[in-house]
Amino acid sequence: MKDQILSIAGKPGLYKLVSRGRANLIVETLDDQRKRMPVFATDRVTSLSDIAMYTDAEDVPLMTILTSLRDKEQGKEVSIDYKKASSKVLRDYFAEILPDFDRERVHDSDIKKLFQWYNILVKNGITDFEEEKKEEEKKEEPEK
After folding, report:
1. How many angstroms separate the CA atoms of 65 and 9, rounded?
2. Segment-wise mean pLDDT, segments of 10 residues, the chain, 144 residues
3. What 8-state DSSP symbol labels residue 142?
4. 100 alpha-carbon distance from chain centroid
5. Who's near 98: CB < 8 A, 6+ residues apart?
6. pLDDT in the model for residue 133
7. What are 23's strand-pairing partners?
8. For residues 47 and 117, what is the distance between their CA atoms, to the nearest angstrom?
9. For the chain, is the Cβ count within 10 Å smaller at the N or the C terminus?
């Protein structure tokens, strides 16, 4: 799942990978319109599984942060109005999810984008952020 959800630089929202062509990808918006469009090699496309956020120790994968946010919000959308919230409110709320985030390198816009993406995923019924991790663990276990 997480490898098929994409972010495209310069385009708002999230996209689901539908198919691959020779020189492009076909993606579908994760909104009510479900609009399909091609994405070319010149576009900067990033899978959510490749994104991490800065902490004081080491970078934390986005899926881990989304899992913490889901647990805090009990699978519902973010409870604060992140679009209008002050920097202090955003950072205090985010500190409850990721206490040791790097306060200098993580900007307010990064936090807002995380909350926006989380809400998009929840609206689309995508809340199992550690799904593939469990599958990988099963593959690594030796068969009896």
Report:
1. 21
2. 84 93 91 91 92 93 94 93 94 95 95 95 88 47 48
3. P
4. 19
5. 53, 55, 60, 65, 68
6. 46
7. none
8. 12
9. C
Contact 27, 18 (CB under 8 A): yes
Provide the whole-model pTM.
Answer: 0.84
Pairing outcome for strands 60-61 and 24-29:
unpaired
Maximum C-alpha span of the chain: 55
Alpha carbon distances (Å) from 51 to 33, 45, 46: 26, 11, 8
Q: Comparing C-alpha atoms, which of 10, 117, 123, 135 is closest to residue 63?
A: 117
Please name the residues in contact with 39: beta carbons below 8 A apart, sequence gap of 6 or more: 6, 8, 15, 24, 25, 26, 27, 45
Q: What is the rounded CA–CA span in Å between residue 2 and residue 48?
A: 6
> Which residue type is seen at 7?
S
Tell me the three state secondary structure of residue 20. strand
Tell me the residue length of the chain. Answer: 144
Residues 76 and 119 sit within 8 Å (Cβ to Cβ):
no
The pair of three-digit structure tokens given for residue 109, joined into one six-digit string? 């816009």
